[in-house]
Amino acid sequence: MALTRIAQEHANLQRDPLETCSAGPADAGNPRQWVGHITGPSDTLYEQRDFSIAIVFPQDYPMKPFQLTLTTPLSHPNISDEGQVRLAELEEKHWSPVFTVRSILVCLQALLANPDPSNGVLNSKAARVDFTNQRQEHVEPTHNGKRIGGKKYLIDMSRPEFEVYKNLTTVEEKDKFLIENADLVRDE
């Protein structure tokens, strides 16, 4: 059953590939070991970076989750120094046989866009500081540097609170949001 399911998933990914990720057998002789890549999501600190992944399927797949590892090093609160991904869907207590490689890759893409430090795996204080510093470097000026109330603001667009901001369409709406959420922005 496992090899049939693995072959079906590979065929589905080839027939209808994902735009920002791919995966498939590392070699024809071992269909249980896959390699692939995922491109960092837009408007994040991982934007346009390409990350290699490795997938190992257990004997009793899909009844048990596969192991997903990022083989490209990165600082992320939900990915260990060894590349192990902390994703709820891959934990045995949350795993369901309806999950597929495709659905888990989409979840990984979402995790890269929205880190969850409360469910993190970072083992060292230095790694947490490195991730925080990277987030601080990923800031962009509002409205091409427009000044609001005499100040120019920089905002960390990777924070989940700014998903609302990204969807605002008028300058007035954006200004109002920044004024109401002044504690989430910093002066230039």
TrEMBL record:
Which UniProt keywords are given for this protein, alphabetically ordered?
Ubl conjugation pathway
* Residue ranges occupied by any UBC core domain in the UniProt entry: 1-151
Which domain of life does the protein's organism represent?
Eukaryota
Does the record carry Plastid as a key word?
A: no
Sorted alphabetically, which InterPro entries does this protein's record hold? Ub_conjugating_enzyme (IPR050113), UBC (IPR000608), UBQ-conjugating_enzyme/RWD (IPR016135)
Extract the coiled-coil ranges from the record. Answer: none
- Pfam families hit by this protein: UQ_con
What is the protein name for this chain?
UBC core domain-containing protein
Which species expresses this protein natively? Neocucurbitaria cava
Q: What is the lineage of its organism?
A: Eukaryota, Fungi, Dikarya, Ascomycota, Pezizomycotina
